[in-house]
């Protein structure tokens, strides 16, 4: 919902305001570049203007919805609004609000919310609310019986005054929040293509970290469909950041998985996960990534008990980030739907086939290490080096 003639998107970011001016400036430049790439990728003809603390997207009325959609997909954006920008003058504001009311007011109570970030205009936010409210009232009173309710209105009209302009809009559409992508160093994302791992990867992207995605192909324990859904989920993640590379590394773990299945009954999953972290560590060394992100959650599977997370984590010295550590499955499903990776994730995970009948919930590091093949970590490095690399980034310019 937007006022007639809206051809601009007002973008709000959150966490950046707490940074020094220099850091905020750099982060805003990054956000502007990311927005420009997202718009281009979606075929929106638009120019992003960097204004202190509120970037603006100038586009056409025809493409305003698409521009708003793009803006509210970008990590770092708290919310955005499709606005009509007019001079910060009483009459222009009244006319714009009256037009918006004639288009959108049908019944019930309304409210005008004023905000003045530019103290040079001769009226304050309360004045704007008062004269704006009157203009709306007069525009619709012949046809309806308008009411004003500031606490629980059915329709809100916003007037935000900045830099000599008044921005008139009707809603604030939430974005993912967080920080602009590319403002943190990259991390290796272990992507199984299940429900959880793409959500975990999205979480670190949302906080500004690019990902280096890695998928371990479990051979007969996995299957072609598993590989495909991992590819699909990385493609979806890439659509949030078209100016970043998403080179998926597909690691052939077939031989190692068979070997572990022969050696272990209970505990094989722990050894496998230790191998997996070591693969990730090797990829991190090669790509400059500074950590690992997984979709693990406490107790979700036997390999994810608090005690087993300790046993497996000791395989690497890199920090393992687990943004979903305390999130319940039902909520994870909702988040996967929001990110857009849920539909590809509904086949049972390959790991389930590899899991033993009697799972180990309190693995003992010394006995796992004693049974692991001596060359488990060398294998991990060798397999990581031999990975197939599939470029899934969208290749838009402007990093
Ligand atoms: P789900 O729990 O929805 O089946 P998942 O991706 O969380 O999917 P888990 O078996 O819970 O799968 O694995 C825990 C984590 O280990 C995953 O979130 C992922 O980060 C990593 N992982 C598991 N299997 C693989 C794999 N084949 N390749 C890469 N990473 C994997
Ligand atoms: Mg899981």
Automatic annotation (TrEMBL):
Coiled coil: none annotated. Residues 65-172 form the THUMP domain. The keyword Cytoplasm applies. It catalyses: [ThiI sulfur-carrier protein]-S-sulfanyl-L-cysteine + a uridine in tRNA + 2 reduced [2Fe-2S]-[ferredoxin] + ATP + H(+) = [ThiI sulfur-carrier protein]-L-cysteine + a 4-thiouridine in tRNA + 2 oxidized [2Fe-2S]-[ferredoxin] + AMP + diphosphate; [ThiS sulfur-carrier protein]-C-terminal Gly-Gly-AMP + S-sulfanyl-L-cysteinyl-[cysteine desulfurase] + AH2 = [ThiS sulfur-carrier protein]-C-terminal-Gly-aminoethanethioate + L-cysteinyl-[cysteine desulfurase] + A + AMP + 2 H(+). The keyword DNA damage does not apply. Keywords: ATP-binding, Cytoplasm, Nucleotide-binding, RNA-binding, Thiamine biosynthesis, Transferase, tRNA-binding. It is an enzyme of class 2 (transferase). Its main location: cytoplasm. Pfam families: ThiI, ThiI_fer, THUMP. GO terms for molecular function: ATP binding; CCA tRNA nucleotidyltransferase activity; tRNA binding; tRNA-uracil-4 sulfurtransferase activity. Catalyzes the ATP-dependent transfer of a sulfur to tRNA to produce 4-thiouridine in position 8 of tRNAs, which functions as a near-UV photosensor. Also catalyzes the transfer of sulfur to the sulfur carrier protein ThiS, forming ThiS-thiocarboxylate. This is a step in the synthesis of thiazole, in the thiamine biosynthesis pathway. The sulfur is donated as persulfide by IscS. This is Probable tRNA sulfurtransferase.
């Amino acid at each position: 919902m937007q006022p007639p003639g809206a051809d601009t998107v007002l973008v709000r970011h959150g966490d950046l305001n707490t940074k020094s001016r220099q850091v905020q400036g750099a982060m805003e430049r990054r956000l502007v570049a990311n927005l420009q790439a997202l718009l281009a990728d979606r075929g929106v003809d638009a120019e992003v203007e960097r204004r202190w603390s509120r970037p603006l997207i100038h586009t056409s009325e025809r493409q305003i919805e698409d521009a708003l959609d793009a803006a509210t997909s970008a990590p770092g954006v708290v919310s955005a609004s499709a606005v009509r920008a007019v001079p910060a003058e009483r009459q222009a504001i009244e006319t714009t609000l009256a037009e918006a009311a004639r288009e959108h007011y049908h019944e019930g109570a309304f409210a005008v919310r004023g905000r003045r970030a530019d103290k040079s205009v001769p009226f304050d936010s309360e004045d704007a609310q008062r004269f704006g409210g009157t203009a709306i009232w007069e525009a619709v009173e012949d046809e309806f019986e308008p009411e004003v309710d500031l606490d629980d209105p059915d329709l809100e009209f916003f007037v935000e005054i900045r830099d000599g302009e008044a921005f008139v809009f009707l809603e604030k559409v939430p974005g993912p929040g967080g920080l602009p992508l590319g403002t943190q160093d990259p991390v290796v994302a272990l992507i199984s293509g299940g429900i959880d791992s793409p959500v975990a990867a999205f979480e670190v992207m949302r906080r500004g970290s690019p990902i280096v995605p890695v998928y371990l192909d479990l051979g007969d324990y996995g299957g072609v469909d598993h590989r495909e859904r991992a590819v699909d989920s990385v493609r979806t993640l890439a659509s949030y950041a078209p100016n970043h590379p998403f080179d998926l590394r597909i690691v052939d773990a077939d031989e190692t998985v068979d070997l572990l299945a022969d050696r272990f009954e209970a505990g094989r999953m722990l050894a496998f996960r230790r191998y997996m972290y070591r693969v990730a560590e090797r990829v991190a060394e090669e790509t400059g990534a500074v950590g690992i992100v997984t979709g693990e959650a406490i107790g979700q599977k036997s390999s994810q008990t608090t005690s087993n997370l300790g046993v497996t984590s000791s395989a690497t010295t890199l920090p393992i980030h687990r943004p979903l550590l305390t999130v319940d499955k039902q909520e994870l499903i909702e988040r996967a739907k929001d990110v857009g990776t849920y539909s590809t994730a509904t086949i049972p995970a390959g790991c389930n086939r590899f899991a033993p009948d009697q799972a180990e919930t309190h693995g003992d590091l010394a006995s796992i290490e004693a049974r692991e093949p001596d060359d488990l970590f060398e294998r991990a490095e060798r397999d990581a080096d031999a990975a197939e690399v599939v470029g899934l980034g969208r290749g838009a310019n402007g990093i």
